[in-house]
Each structure stands twice: as C-alpha cells, then as structure tokens.
Amino acid sequence: MRQTSNSPAQHAIGIDFGTTNSSIALASGDEVDLVRFPRRGGETESFRSVLYLERIRQAGHLRIGNWTGPAAIEHYLDAEKKGRLIQSLKSYLSSSNLTGTEILGRHFSFEDLISRILTDLRLNAERQFGAQIRYAMVGRPVRFVGAETTEDDAFAQSRLQRAFELAGYERIEFAMEPVAAAYAYEATLDHDELILIGDFGGGTSDFSLLKVGPGVRKRGRLPGDLLGNSGLGLAGDAFDARIVRKLVSPELGAGTLLHPASKMLPAVPAWIYSNLERWHYLSFLRTRNVTEILKSARARAMEPDKIQALITLVDEDLGFQLHQAVQRLKYELSSAEAAEFRFIDGTLELRKPVTRAEFEGWIAEDLAAIEGCVDSLFTRTGMSYPDVDRVFLTGGTSFVPAVRGIFERRFGAERVRSGNEFTSVARGLALRAEESLLNAHI
Known about the structure:
- The chain is an alpha+beta fold.
- It has helices at residues 69-78, 110-129, 150-166, 177-186, 214-219, 236-248, 270-276, 288-300, 304-315, 319-333, 356-362, 364-381, 401-411, 424-440; strands at 12-16, 21-28, 31-34, 37-39, 42-44, 47-48, 50-58, 61-68, 84-87, 100-103, 106-109, 135-140, 171-176, 193-200, 205-212, 226-232, 338-345, 348-355, 390-394, 416-418.
C-alpha cells in the first residue's frame, strides 16, 4: 500500500457514487489505485450503494445500527427479523418532494442517508491510503434521473454536494461521468483520438463526444475538445423492471382475476406490482394495509397460489434475492441465446426459460430511447459516425448484447471497446482530480 502525506489537498481522489455500485480511486503520476473493500470471502473494488438499518440492543438499550456496502448486504441476509435495506438513493436526488423519511421510528433527511454511504467510502479509502481525505473529484450524470429542467438538475447536484459535506468532505468538484470514463480510456493511448464514451449505470445512460490523447494533454485541454454530452434517466434498473413485469409479476398474481361473482376485477392493485419492479421498494409493502389487501385477494382470487407466493415474497422481504435472480438472468443472456430464470428461497420457487430474443423484445422501447439519445448527440454536434475513431463503453449494462449492438451497427464492431466496466469512471475521476490539482498550483 502506498503511503501519502497528511495534507488532504494533495490527494487526487476520484469518487464514483453510483445508483447501484460505487468506487473510489487515488491517482499519483501514471498510477491509479482503487480502494478494496472487505467482504466475506475476500475483497472487492465495487462498493454496493446500499444502506441497511436495524434495531439492535446495546448495554440494555435499543438503538438503530447502520451498515453500508458489502456489510449492509451481509447484515441484511443474516437478520432473522429484517430491518430496512435502502438502495438507489441517487435516483431520487432530483425529487424535491423527497426530503426525508421515518425509519424504525426515527426521522432521517435524504442527505443524511446518502452521507452514511459516502462516509464509509471515505473511511475505507483513508485506511487503505493512510491519509486524511477531504477533497474529491465526484462524478455526476449528464442528467440526473427524474430531472426535467436545468433547475431540477442543479437541485440534484446541490443535494449531492450537501451529502458529501455531511460525510466530512471539505471541497469537492464535479465532473461528468462519461467524461471521466474518457480520461480512463485516454490513459491507454499513445496517439490522439476522437472518441464516443457510453457510460451505462443503474439509473442513467450518458454519452460524451470528445478529443483525447497525449497530444491533447501536452498542449493543454481546450473547451472545444468536448464536442457535446447527452444523457437520459434510463439504464440497467429499467431493464430489471421489464424482466420483473414480463416474467415475475405474472407468476405472483399480476393479471389474476377475482371470482366471477366479483365481476372479474383484478385481484391485486397494479401499484403493488409497480413497487415490485424496484426491488428496494419491496420493504415499503410490509405494512398492515398491504397485508390485508393481499390476504383478502388470496381468499377471493381465481389463482390463490400465485397471491400466496406474492405474500411470501413481501412477508419475508425477499427483494434483494429477487434482484440477484434478475441480475443472474441478464448475465447469462449476455453470453447465451437462452437461460432459465431461477428464484428459489425457502418455500418460494420460480423457474421459467427465457430466450435472449424475448428479453430484447421486452426492452425494445428502452433500446430505442438509448439509440435516439446517441443519434441526437451527433445531430446536435454536426458530427457523423465515420468521424469517430473509437467508441468506449463502460458500466454493467454495456454487457447486454443488444446495447452493444446499437454501437456496432453505427460504428462497426472493430471500433467498439470496453473495459473496467465497474471502475473506469472512478479511475478517470482520480486522473481528472490530479490534473485539476496540478493546474491549481501552476
């Protein structure tokens, strides 16, 4: 482990706070170190952006314990009586209606919840690098999820900055996430290129068209090197929701009707299945009102076994396990034409074969939106596809063949590259932080 000095301003730290995963890196010269986070069975460079809260008894008193990242998942899975597992907080930064929430009888502001994750990212980095960290270059999407105006976008960024301040960071700078990924790619070049970066997170898909390379660094970066950005609030989470809607919800009673005597009405309200599509919302269904709705539906439904399966999923708070099953299916379909969806937990078992063609049909609308976003970038900048030397894709959703196909059809497979899909943004942010600190001292 490389030791650094104790002056926070001297550390080129990059933090990629993601909807699903986060990572943090330190740049020094040509070397970039990623923080390795402890977990059972080893270490990981990818920190799950989750927070778990649970009542614990300590010295005869009840208090709320909290854990983040891998530890949060482990405590959640070990708990017999589940607390609250919270994920995808980044997706709600632009929502002015969400100021806070009550968890286990205590009120938390939205920024408080995010700051817990950011604090543990900092503490892990300080332990590994042996130095205090008070400055960071922080990634942000081209457009935050749910931001419909520039004011919404500015509001989201201000909330994220406040969360960093609560987590102990004294100074932060923001950089577009696809631009940061471009910095990581640039470090591999021995010549200049015009590149298109596609950064696919859990909640956003972002694109940047820019000039990079050793010649660009040597002459100094110019505003015109960044030709344009585009983005939309849609990525891996949307794909997951399609799988749940098309594959899982029907097996849990979606579309199941009440007996004819009840005028063939749906047994379960649609909003319950909408919450099911976002697995971290499943905890919100564990209320007395929902329990009564589901038990009444089971008693009157034409397919009560399916409603019982939904009751089991909610009562046992199996959202994370369901999410893992969905992720496994996406991963398998990335390399095979067909796979089996398998969700087995206790008394609940769901199995169903799925073809890649079926999955691509489910996400066709989302793929079209991504295509439109890419094409609009080229229209707006006046560039054409042959002008691009290379396309670099990063983020977990870039593994999906149909997503990669969008770029191979436009640019040719030989020009499409990928690598460090889960950490390239953090690497690039650290490199950009180093450049920013160097320029500040010139």
